[in-house]
Amino acid sequence: MNRFSTSLLGEAKTLLLATDGSHFSDGAVQEAIFFGQACGAKVVVLHVVRNDAESLKSANSKLMRRQQEIRPYLDQFRKMAKDSGVECETVVVGAPHPERAIVEQAILRKADVILMGRHGKEGRFSLLVGSMTAKVIGLGFPKVLVVPREFLISGNHVLLAVDASPSGIAVEEALSLGRCCSTLTRLTVLCVAEREREMPAARKQVEGICAKGRLTWPNIIYEPLVLEGNAAETIVQVAGERNVDMIMLGGPSKRGLPRMFLSNVTKNVCGRAHCATLVVTA
Predict the structure, then answer these.
(1) What predicted TM-score, i.e. pTM, was given to this entire model?
(2) Domains of the chain and any CATH numbers
(3) What is each CA distance from 267 to 29, 115, 251, in whole angstroms?
(4) Which of 85, 81, 84, 102 is nearest to 93 (CA)?
(5) CA-CA distance, 65 to 96, in Å (whole number)?
(6) Is the Cβ–Cβ distance between 129 and 120 less than 8 Å?
(7) What is the mean pLDDT for each group of 10 consecutive residues in the chain (282 residues)?
(8) Beta strand 143-146 with 276-280: parallel, antiparallel or unpaired?
């Protein structure tokens, strides 16, 4: 299979790769190049230097020092992009709140998707998803793709996770993959019910989504799945058992946080899944 004949990100024109320059970003770097080729998109590589409450002189000095330190890393990415025929721009900025700077730069440069690696050092989220990635997701950018280190997306099987208040945008994005992803063969739609009495409504919901998909893109296999239990654990387990390429789920909505995000399911799934996770904001 030719990986570059497919795109799970749709018709993206600009991708923003937020990186700290560590090996934890390796998976996101590989996928940025892949999606740059698959979508014919420009890749903006962003590194944000935290300047806290420093004086302007001190902040500028720190920024210049970090620019020198990270230059070999950025030069290497530029070479990879050039060798792959991908347009690339590298940006280094200083900011007191890096997560806000990442989203601001994504908006400024009209990025369709923010790509981030996965790791963390702060508290319990060190076992889940990096705190910076979690903060960026929490700011509600339309699409954030979280990629584990050394993971490659082949584009065969996607898991769409919904709850009692699913993100309509995430559902529509998943169903549109039949148009923009030529190698997608299977879409599993999963709803995890907290209690047995919720399962009939959940089953009706996922079967409705699959029925809509079959009418639109009949060449794809749609699998409705309803299970009872812990949402994050079940999503991660199902993704692993089915060896999916990517999990799609809703993130924080401008109209209020959906139940899935309030319970930290999104952060848990992003941090524990074997595969990439695309968080789509309603």
Answers:
(1) 0.86
(2) 10-146 (3.40.50.620), 157-280 (3.40.50.620)
(3) 21, 15, 9
(4) 102
(5) 17
(6) yes
(7) 52 89 78 86 94 76 90 93 94 93 96 82 40 85 87 85 71 79 88 92 93 92 96 96 92 51 74 90 70
(8) antiparallel
